């Protein structure tokens, strides 16, 4: 073994051992807690469950509070899919025109895009606006809020990516008789597929995991999102740590699946945006 | 990712039958209609700009959502005279700078490690990024159990080796730093990712030249990798400060601002005042947060991006 190989192995093994302690042990802890009985789980010890009741806990979580978790998953799914769709389409259109059209207004637009990224949303005034529009505490209102808050970041990624698509392509399409709408929706948008995936997955994970948004703008049990079930679980059932951790486990699965299926594209798309932006 | 893109692009470019004349550019310009901005502008104005501007007015009022009384700067004097509220301002700064600084240092270290020759690189990259995907509330609940002063695993291990067993979330002097550490644990994956992208983009000729010159690993790091990672560092600093200064979820899930108000930040005060029905005061908190973020971020991003250009 060459010295370089030996170093790669020794550094790698140290890093893997550290990563096990720092990242894997907490995850195993969640799984163990989710498999215990209530008394066992409330001891909080990192220990093998006395009675292994993973499936029973799974069923119990689904049945808690008249199956609120089902409704929460449905609400979160609707919220995530709809707001991400709106975000992707609107941000792609805006980012595209921003990258292509060289005008004196671009500076102003860029300023507002950055402001949208930096400025923390004003909470109570937003509730006030939502109430005026009769959208407060409704799923459509929440969808519009999430879409708005995600626009800036999405526009930045789309703008960076459109810059990589050769302009000659647009001109060719125009010479072939494409109008502005078919140029964008039929020629440019399909080419944006990689960054669409990046934006969609990143924002979907963000919206799905958002806690403060639904906490403020979507009160009430019938509109509960998955993150809020976690919170009510925590405050109501302090004696049922096993169910609380089962809930955490369930809620982590959707983002994990999304990430596993699009890992490479997310990394590539994000780094592209991060360097260019 | 770029392969599909360029393949499709070159395919479509083949369609061009004749080279375009310069005057065509003007005609093409109208193919990027300003109307594409309209839906974005509507959402942005209604749900972001109007509330942001309105917060300035309502922060000067006693407000019940239905009617408001103009009271001048009363909410702001309340905010900065009441120690429970004022400390949140200090905590926000501490929290923002600690998390941001640590993410730069640790993220860079991990990126160097994970772009170098190590065994198990794919696994390590995946595992570092994983916490980014987990729900913040879930992470908070998990760490509340792991760091429980009496039953938690961390203190059990510390006790086993004869160390002290601090009350991570229950010690008033420690709570805010513990939360910051959890935040770093959860967010380090993004910082690492950005640094990794920057390091991978450094031309390999530089490293080869350094190797031929017989530069040590440390010299290579100091002379090449660190100076050329300034751009990614700027991105990491800006993104993590934006997130850190307005952090709420993780604090609310772990301590709720306690014990007492020793881990309250501005964002949690905004929520508490909202819950208590002090909408004017809550909006004043929003204005304070807005000012903190802009006063820090605007000069900082100017300074950081200028450095980047000098490279």
Describe the protein in words.
The complex is a heterodimer of chains A (277) and B (311). In chain A, helix 9 (193-209) packs antiparallel against helix 12 (241-276) and helix 11 (226-236) packs antiparallel against helix 12. In chain A, 81% of the residues lie in helices and 0% in strands. With 277 residues, chain A is mainly alpha-helical. Chain A has twelve helices and no strands. Chain A is globular. With 311 residues, chain B is mainly alpha-helical. Helices cover 71% and strands 2% of the residues of chain B. A two-stranded antiparallel ribbon of chain B has the order 1-2. In chain B, strand 1 and strand 2 (68-70) form a beta hairpin. In chain B, helix 4 (74-81) packs across helix 5 (83-115), helix 4 (74-81) crosses helix 15 (279-310) and helix 14 packs antiparallel against helix 15. The longest helix of chain B is centred in the N-terminal third of the chain and has 33 residues, at 83-115. In chain B, 41% of the residues are buried. Chains A and B meet through helix 1, helix 3, helix 4, helix 5 and helix 6 of A and helix 1, helix 2, helix 3, helix 6 and helix 7 of B.
Question: Helix and strand layout, with pairings?
Answer:
The complex is a heterodimer of chains A (277) and B (311).
Chain A lengths: L2 H33 L2 H5 L11 H47 L5 H13 L4 H10 L6 H24 L4 H9 L4 H12 L1 H17 L2 H6 L8 H11 L4 H36 L1
Chain B lengths: L1 H12 L10 H6 L8 H21 L2 E3 L4 E3 L3 H8 L1 H33 L5 H13 L2 H11 L6 H8 L14 H27 L2 H9 L4 H9 L4 H16 L3 H6 L11 H10 L3 H32 L1
Antiparallel strand pairs in B: 1-2
Distance between the termini of chain A: 43 Å
Low-confidence stretches of chain B: 1-26
| Tally of strands of chain A | 0
Largest sheet of chain B: 2 strands, antiparallel
Question: By helix and strand content of chain B, what is the structural category?
Answer: mainly alpha
- Report the principal-axis shape of chain B: globular
Helix content of chain A: over 70%
Oligomer: heterodimer
How large, in whole angstroms, is the Cα Rg of chain A?
23 Å
Topology pattern of chain B, helix = H, strand = E: HHHEEHHHHHHHHHHHH
Category by helix and strand content of chain A: mainly alpha
Q: Which pair of protein chains has the largest interface, and what are the residue counts? A: A-B, 110 and 101 residues
Share in helix of chain B:
over 70%
Percentage of residues in strands of chain A: under 5%
Question: Average pLDDT of chain B, to the nearest integer?
Answer: 84
Largest sheet of chain A: none
């Amino acid at each position: 073994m060459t010295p370089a190989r030996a170093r790669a192995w020794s550094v790698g093994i140290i890093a893997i051992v550290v990563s096990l302690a720092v990242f894997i042990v907490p995850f195993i802890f969640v799984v163990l807690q989710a498999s215990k009985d209530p008394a066992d789980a409330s001891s909080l010890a990192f220990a093998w469950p006395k009675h292994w009741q993973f499936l029973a806990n799974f069923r119990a979580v689904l049945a808690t509070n008249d199956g609120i978790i089902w409704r929460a998953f449905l609400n979160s799914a609707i919220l995530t899919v709809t707001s991400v769709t709106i975000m992707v389409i609107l941000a792609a259109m805006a980012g595209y025109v921003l990258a292509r059209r060289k005008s004196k207004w671009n500076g102003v637009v860029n300023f507002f895009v950055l402001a949208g990224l930096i400025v923390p949303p004003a909470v109570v005034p937003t509730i006030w606006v939502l109430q005026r529009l009769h959208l407060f505490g409704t799923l459509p209102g929440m969808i519009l809020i999430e879409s708005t808050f995600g626009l800036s970041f999405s526009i930045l990624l789309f703008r960076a990516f459109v810059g990589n698509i050769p302009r000659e392509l647009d001109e060719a399409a125009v010479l072939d008789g494409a109008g502005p709408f078919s140029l964008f929706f039929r020629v440019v948008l399909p080419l944006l597929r990689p960054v669409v995936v990046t934006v969609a997955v990143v924002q979907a994970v963000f919206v799905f995991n958002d806690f403060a948004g639904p906490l403020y703008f979507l009160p009430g049990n019938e509109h509960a999102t998955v993150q809020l079930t976690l919170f009510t679980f925590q405050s109501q059932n302090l004696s049922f740590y096993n169910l609380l951790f089962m809930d955490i486990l369930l809620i982590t699965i959707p983002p994990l699946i999304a990430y596993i299926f699009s890992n490479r594209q997310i990394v590539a798309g994000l780094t592209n945006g991060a360097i260019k932006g | 990712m770029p392969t599909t893109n360029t393949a499709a692009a070159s395919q479509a470019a083949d369609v061009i039958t004749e080279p375009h004349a310069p005057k065509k550019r003007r005609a093409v310009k109208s193919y990027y209609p300003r109307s594409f901005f309209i839906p974005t502008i509507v959402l942005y104005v209604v749900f972001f700009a109007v509330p942001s501007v309105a917060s300035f007015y309502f922060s000067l009022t006693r407000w019940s959502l239905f009617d408001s009384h103009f009271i001048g700067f009363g909410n702001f004097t309340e905010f900065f005279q009441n120690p429970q509220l004022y400390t949140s301002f200090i905590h926000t700064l501490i929290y923002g700078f600690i998390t941001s600084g640590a993410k730069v240092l640790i993220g860079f270290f991990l990126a160097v490690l994970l772009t170098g020759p190590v065994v198990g690189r794919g696994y390590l990259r995946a595992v570092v990024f994983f916490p980014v995907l987990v729900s913040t509330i879930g992470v908070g609940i998990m760490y509340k159990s792991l760091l429980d002063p009496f039953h938690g695993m961390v203190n059990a291990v510390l006790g086993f080796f004869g160390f002290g067993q601090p009350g991570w979330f229950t010690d008033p002097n420690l709570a805010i730093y513990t939360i910051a550490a959890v935040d770093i644990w959860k967010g380090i994956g993004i910082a690492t990712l950005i640094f990794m992208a920057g390091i991978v983009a450094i031309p390999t000729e530089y490293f080869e030249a350094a190797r031929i010159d017989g530069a040590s690993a440390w010299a290579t790091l100091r002379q090449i990798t660190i100076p050329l990672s300034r751009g990614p560092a700027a991105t990491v600093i800006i993104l993590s400060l934006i997130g850190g200064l307005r952090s709420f979820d993780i604090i609310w899930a772990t301590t709720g601002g306690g014990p007492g108000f020793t881990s309250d930040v501005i964002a949690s005060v905004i929520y508490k005042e909202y819950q208590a029905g002090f909408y004017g005061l809550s909006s004043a908190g929003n204005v304070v947060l807005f000012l903190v973020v802009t006063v820090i971020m605007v000069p900082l991003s100017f300074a950081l991006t200028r450095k980047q250009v000098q490279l």
